[in-house]
# Entry
Amino acid sequence: MGTPTIESEEHRALRKAVAALGTRYGRDYFTRVVAEGTHTDDLWAEAAKLGYLGVNLPEEHGGGGGGIVELSIVLEELGAAGCPLLMMVVSPAICGTVIARFGTEEQKRTWLPGLADGSRKMAFGITEPDAGSNSHRITTTARKEGGDWVLNGRKVFISGVDIADATLIVGRTEDARTGRLKPCLFIVPRDTPGFGRSPIAMELSAPEKQFELTLDEVRLPADALVGDEDAGLLQLFAGLNPERIMTAAFALGMGRYALGRAVDYAGTRQVWKEPIGAHQAVAHPLAQAHIELELARLMMQKAAHLYDAGDDLGAGEAANMAKYAAAEAAVHAVDQAVHTLGGNGLTQEYGLASMITAARVARIAPVSREMILNFVSHQSLGLPKSY
# Structure
């Protein structure tokens, strides 16, 4: 009888293969790309060639036929090697999933093969300056005009718009029956007239830039609408749950990378008779960080399995919990890694200090930890809503 395992042999093999790819590039590659102001095109292209970018997309459209379980493994292992690909969260996980589940056959044929083989990218636009975590306050609107849609609004903190062929924009349309605004998703090609972008200066070391978007009378054909006009909320959360799961994978990879650097340092850095890792004041915090990362991974795996099984409700709860746990674990792991290295932890040579800012992103985006606690207290525990 074999030893029980949470991951299948195929998943363990996938982890090993992706880890090998990540090791060939590593943190030095990532740091150089950031310093040069360029993009991780080489790694993106090789990951695509090996089938990793589209591992979650349908086989009939060039993907691997897997799910978010497999895609989260890919992102986590690249992150653990020090070279995460943020656009994996957006392009195949959010946009690819939404189009695969709800897009028309034409939309699937047009977009999924390119998203799967890495030749095309898609950004995702939901956050707005005056809405923040409250998606019910989204003011980007879409009105019907003849056979077209016309969009107006603003978006902020949208990743990778400059390198994306299109952006999946969350807008709101008026329900003809109730007059209320309801969410809908539109594919907006990058060069569409009226679709403007301006970069946001960030104190963040990342190849992917952040943008503010303006939509000024952006006219789109009828087939720019993804899925059913009356099923926008379902379609929206079909993208948001993978986003949370993949953010957890991103955070876990980052935490594992930082912890690995700290463990290597603690095992070799000698100030007294033994390496500093022999002292409990150094060893125990690192052990605690490892435990927290492993626990967060378990919740991420649960969320991914629920999502791939079609349990959107169960996946929603687990995805929020996974994102929360992974973000907290990553922040703690990075902080402890820097502290373990002391002054060396703040040097460019070791490359950990810049991760202090990067780790906090997972606490803030795509939804704050406070909003996750609101969700859990209300949805999971049945407590009254506070907002």
Summary: The beta strands are 122-125, 141-145, 148-159, 166-174, 181-189, 195-200, 210-221.
